[in-house]
């Protein structure tokens, strides 16, 4: 809805429309003014699916001759089912003619699937990419799954259980499920049959339809929180009544046998026991996805508080699912400086997942940086898109990384980032294109690690120049990744010696210029070796002005690579030894055969490796949302004076 459009009044008679903030907000952004009272001319009545309270709205609509808007969750809802853990939806299905799971009458979705051309190349490419990204991140309608759980040996049949009384069953119950299970056993007499439970039944919130007393020997109740993408890998058949998991099975390569009349049946992609005569069209998987996941739902971005596209929802859901999976055991953070604790608690302490003292017990141990750590501990550091301002100025980070046994700036040991980069060639094309879009946006917005603003001095722009990047000399990234060159003065001398005719732009590290850290080069040495010193200059502007970049191991070298600048490394930073830089140090053996493209490197470093957090709430967010927040300047303020004083004590 645009600012000039007047919202349509939506009269509701169920409390959830008024009390659930996310629901009301999405409806508002979609152009609906949620209200109570009697509908007038041009007003609509809103109902939620086919819930027990829907009759109220239907009765009022019939009496007032008002049209009905049926609201339901979209097909990517949240990490957890709302009944297991209260979770607001990431999207809604707003249907003006029916409801998608009721095959007795057409819905807006059925009309889309039946009549929309679905022949736009860009739309179908988006659909294929979205399917690949869902598979890569192991996402579905609910994503509180463990992507590390492996399925049973191949050759089994999956029968999908549903919750008793679910509206999508359209009145079907245990008898119909028993019939479906019998079909599966008779058609696959030699195969194990896995009855996949619904996550709400696993959490004890509701009951399923499967009854163990049905007495079919080859049947096993399967409640492990496995990724559906992995579950379907080894399946030789899928049976469902109307579960959304049956919809997901289609994109995993199956043609499920369907006993109900869900929205995805009747389009040539399922084996239908109760076909719907209205549905005569054959669709491809991409066409089904395009209509059902791109054109039909109303998607919501909770970080930027706006309506969005399915790609934004996939990115956000991936961030939330990753946090759930990685933080499941909880953490004990040892030796963390007091000033860091508030924002670490916000980022990792949700649901009491982070402690700063006590025995690790079943929790993971975390330490900061390269300090002493127990065997097997995780090491934490800032990510590569950090903040608007310096960490040394006590500006909390927007991103953090966890690694073991070492961190990204230690080239002597292969850590998690090395593994991600090494496997980047296996990424689906959809994720590579995502990385390309992310990099393009970072460049367009001029974002860097710290995003400090500052103008460049005047210099001869026509003369070939070389940007030489200073570092903090006692920083771990230089200590571990510096090679033979360990000081900024040595860096400047080598740059001048090997580039005698270049105009050298010397950029000191902002922490050093601010007086927080070690690494200052005297004014006399800077004047003798460099042509221009970029005091307090924007890193983005300095890179944009540079013809090439020299560094020991600075992250600014990575930022220059993202902007397609030639980079020479005297040390061995995380982005060196990959075939993208001119390296003056020998690459370690574990990088010898892992040359990658720039988008592959960017995906590993900006998407796969860091975790991003909303500075206002600590909630997990996508890299794309983090870029928006950095661009908009939405960040936490520095810690207060008391915390600054505490920092001085530790």
Mean pLDDT: 92
What is the CATH first-level class name of the domain at 422-598?
Alpha Beta
Total E-strand runs? 26
CATH topology of the domain at 422-598: Rossmann fold
Sum this structure up briefly.
The protein is of the alpha/beta class.
Structure, described:
The protein is an alpha/beta fold and 650 residues long. Among the domains are: 8-115, 3-Layer(aba) Sandwich (Rossmann fold); 140-281, Rossmann fold, CATH 3.40.50; 422-598, Rossmann fold (3-Layer(aba) Sandwich), CATH 3.40.50. It has 23 helices and 26 strands. Helix 3 links the parallel strand 3 (44-48) and strand 4 (68-73). Residues 641-650 have low confidence and may be disordered.
SSE diagram, text form:
Layout: E1 8-12, H1 16-19, H2 21-29, E2 32-35, E3 44-48, H3 54-64, E4 68-73, E5 91-95, H4 108-115, H5 121-137, E6 156-160, H6 174-187, E7 193-196, H7 199-202, E8 219-222, H8 228-231, E9 235-240, H9 244-251, E10 257-258, E11 271-272, H10 285-295, E12 298-301, E13 306-308, H11 310-326, E14 331-334, H12 341-348, E15 354-355, E16 364-368, E17 378-382, E18 399-403, H13 416-422, H14 429-445, E19 465-469, H15 476-481, H16 488-498, E20 503-507, H17 510-513, H18 523-529, E21 532-533, H19 539-545, E22 549-551, H20 555-562, E23 567-569, E24 582-583, H21 598-608, E25 611-613, E26 620-621, H22 623-632, H23 641-649
Helix pairs in contact: 5-10, 5-11, 14-21, 14-22
């Amino acid at each position: 809805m645009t600012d000039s459009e007047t919202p349509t009044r939506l009269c509701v008679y169920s409390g959830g429309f008024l009390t659930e903030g996310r629901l009301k907000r999405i409806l508002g952004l979609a152009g609906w003014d949620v209200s109570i009272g009697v509908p007038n001319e041009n007003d609509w009545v809103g109902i939620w699916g086919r819930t027990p309270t829907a009759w109220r709205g239907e009765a009022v609509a019939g009496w007032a001759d008002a049209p009905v808007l049926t609201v339901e969750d979209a097909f990517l809802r949240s990490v957890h089912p709302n009944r297991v853990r209260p979770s607001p939806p990431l999207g809604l299905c707003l249907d003006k003619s029916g409801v998608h799971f009721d095959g007795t009458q057409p819905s807006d979705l059925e009309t889309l699937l039946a009549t929309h051309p679905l022949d736009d190349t860009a739309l179908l490419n988006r659909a294929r990419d979205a399917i690949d990204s869902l598979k890569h991140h192991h996402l579905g309608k609910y994503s509180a799954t463990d992507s590390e759980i492996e399925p049973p040996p191949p050759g089994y049949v999956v029968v999908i259980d549903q919750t008793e009384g679910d509206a999508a069953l359209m009145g079907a119950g245990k008898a119909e499920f028993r019939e479906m299970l019998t079909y599966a056993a008779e058609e696959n007499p030699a195969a194990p049959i896995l009855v996949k439970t619904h996550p709400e039944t696993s959490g004890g919130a509701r009951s399923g339809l499967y009854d163990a007393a049905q007495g079919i020997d080859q049947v096993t109740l399967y409640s492990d929180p496995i990724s559906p993408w992995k579950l379907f890998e080894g399946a030789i058949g899928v049976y469902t009544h109307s579960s959304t998991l049956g919809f997901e099975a289609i994109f995993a390569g199956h043609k499920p046998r369907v006993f109900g009349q869900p929205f995805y049946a009747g389009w040539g992609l399922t084996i239908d026991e109760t076909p719907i005569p209205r549905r005569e069209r054959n669709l491809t998987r991409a066409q089904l996805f395009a209509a059902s996941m791109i054109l039909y739902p109303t998607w919501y971005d909770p970080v930027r508080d706006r309506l969005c596209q399915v790609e934004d929802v996939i990115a956000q859901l991936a961030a939330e699912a990753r946090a759930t999976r990685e933080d499941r055991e909880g953490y004990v953070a040892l030796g963390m400086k007091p000033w860091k604790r508030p924002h670490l608690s916000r980022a990792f302490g949700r649901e009491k997942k982070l402690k700063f003292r006590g025995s690790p017990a079943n929790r993971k141990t975390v330490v900061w940086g390269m300090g002493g750590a127990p065997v097997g501990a995780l090491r934490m550091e800032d990510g590569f898109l950090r903040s608007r301002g310096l960490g040394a100025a006590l500006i909390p980070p927007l991103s953090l990384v966890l690694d073991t046994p070492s961190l990204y700036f230690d080239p002597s040991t292969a850590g998690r980032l090395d593994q991600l980069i090494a496997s980047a060639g296996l990424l689906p094309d959809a994720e590579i294109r995502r990385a390309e879009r992310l990099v393009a946006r970072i460049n367009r917005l001029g974002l860097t690690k710290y995003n400090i603003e500052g103008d460049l001095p005047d210099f001869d722009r026509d003369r070939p120049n070389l940007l030489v990047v200073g570092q903090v000399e006692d920083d771990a990234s230089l200590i571990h990744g510096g090679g033979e060159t360990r000081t900024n003065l040595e860096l400047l001398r080598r740059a001048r010696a090997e580039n005698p005719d270049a105009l050298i732009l010397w950029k000191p590290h902002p922490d050093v210029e601010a007086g927080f850290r070690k690494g200052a080069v005297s004014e006399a040495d800077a004047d003798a070796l460099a042509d221009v010193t970029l005091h307090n200059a924007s890193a983005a502007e300095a890179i944009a002005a540079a013809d090439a970049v020299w560094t020991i191991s600075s992250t600014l070298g990575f930022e220059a690579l993202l902007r397609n600048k030639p980079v020479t490394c005297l040390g061995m930073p995380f982005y060196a030894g990959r075939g993208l830089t001119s390296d003056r140090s020998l690459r370690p053996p574990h990088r010898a055969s892992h040359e990658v493209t720039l988008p592959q490197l960017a995906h590993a470093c900006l998407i796969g490796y860091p975790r991003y957090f909303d500075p206002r709430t600590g909630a997990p967010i996508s890299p794309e949302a983090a870029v928006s927040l950095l661009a908009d300047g939405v960040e936490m303020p520095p810690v207060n004076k008391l915390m600054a004083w505490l920092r001085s004590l530790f």
